[in-house]
Amino acid sequence: SKPAPVKKPATVSKPKQKINLDLELKKKNEKPNLSFVVIGHVDSGKSTMTGRLLYDLNIVDSKTLHKLTKESESIGKASFSLAWIMDQTSEERNRGITVDICQTQFETKQSSFTIIDSPGHKDYVPQMINGVTQADLAIAIIDASSFESGFIADGQTKEHLTIAKSLGIEKCILLINKMDVVGWSKDRYDEIKGQLTEFLTDELKYVKDDLIFLPASGYLGDNIVKKSKNLPWYSGSSLIELLESENKSVNHKIDKKSPFVMTINDVMESSKNDELTVSGRINSGLIQPGESISISPSQQTALIHSITITKSNVGSSLVKNEAQKLAIEGEFVELKLKKLDNWENIKVGDLCSLANNPIKPCNKFSCELQCFELTRLLLIGTPFVMFRNNISIPARLSSIELVNGKKNKKKHLRSNTVSTVTIEILERDMPLLTFGENKKLGRVVIRKDGFTVAAGKILDLLHE
Ligand code: GDP
Predict the structure, then answer these.
(1) pTM > 0.80: yes or no
(2) Closest residue (by CA) to atom 18 of ligand 1?
(3) What is the helix (H) or strand (E) element at residue 247, kind and residue range?
(4) CA-based, 20 to 30 A from 374: which of 138, 151, 160, 294?
(5) How far apart are CA 354 and CA 336, in angstroms?
(6) By the 8 A CB rule, do 189 and 215 touch?
(7) Count of Cβ atoms closer than 10 Å to residue 382 Cβ
(8) How many angstroms separate the alpha carbon of residue 43 from the centre of ligand 1?
(9) d(CA 131, CA 141)
(10) Mean pLDDT of successive 10-residue stretches along the chain, which has 464 residues
(11) What are phi and psi of 71, to 5 degrees?
């Protein structure tokens, strides 16, 4: 269906409360939040590592772990008890319709973190893409005992790392896991590190200094929170030390002039007719209760009644909703909205902006597209699935302007090319931002027949 034409907002309203912006920002920066996504091949140990991290930080108590151990023993899977810490919370948290990634908040003395848990299985790449778009940093878990199976052939390690880089994750911790299984071997670690570094710097163009390697055992806890005695040849930091130091460097340097944009991750209806709560991570800018926003593509205006940040303790059902005077880029928030004309049209993936700065949806854009290794040529007109943030939508190439910098006459793209193309979104118009406007939202990933085939930067929106 066609979206409504751009409407003049009914109300453009001011914040409810006058605040001292610099002071509020300073407060937020006392304990900045770093969000990280855990990626990697299935069974590489993602859940186990995360469970170990939370357990060794005393965020999950031994009673909870004991209970989980008993449960997992009773079905003959004792080794899964740490992994269940995350799985159990994800179930508890599953309140909305669309929560297919799990967010877990935890705090240490100095820092606050959000873990984005994404499924490692091949069928879950779309959710993994969603997870990556919410993260500042990726931790890739690599199984030292079976590195090759996740890396060569159709393993998920390469695909996950490719997607992470294509969606703007510049920094990556590569945790070489299950070092206990390979006898804590430095040779094995060096071999894997070498192969990964080559792939990441040569093919994915990562900057070497942005790659942090770390040998560990999530299961036994070596180098997660406690330094390992089994790895005397490694003099670097443990995972939590690395995360703490990354957290310090996040230090929300908010560009006060950058426009407010938030992608909707979840929509929660209320018993009251004129209220609706949407949640998401703020992509840029800042917002206060009392301000009015526009939601694209439906172009409705709503008033922000209140803003809350949900803090829950992992492993318990204690949830705190902290009301905010101000919310800023990078924060995961819930916005309680008032006075929307039409509820039904608000969906996951919609973009919120300030009411006086609505985002006009469109269905065509020019794009700098990088093709990866293709098994078949990418043809003009053939549909593929395009991912942008947490939306996936059918789309196709409608023209190819340049290939590797040269004028193009062909009707297809080959492997390992960089081209300028026009992409047409099928089915509906989407709210889009260019790469120039937003370095994360201005990116797309293209998958075809279950493989990631290309990634692009949105150059220009072509409104008809
Ligand atoms: P995920 O699919 O990546 O989340 O992997 P899981 O965390 O579920 O782990 C898969 C299996 O590997 C489980 O049996 C874990 O106990 C085991 N595992 C995970 N980390 C380690 C480790 O560091 N050492 C050993 N020996 N086994 C591990």
Answers:
(1) yes
(2) 45
(3) helix 239-250
(4) 138
(5) 15
(6) yes
(7) 12
(8) 6
(9) 15
(10) 53 82 86 88 85 84 67 58 55 36 77 75 71 90 88 78 91 96 97 94 93 96 96 96 88 77 88 85 93 92 90 57 90 87 80 94 96 93 92 94 93 95 94 93 92 94 86
(11) -60, -45
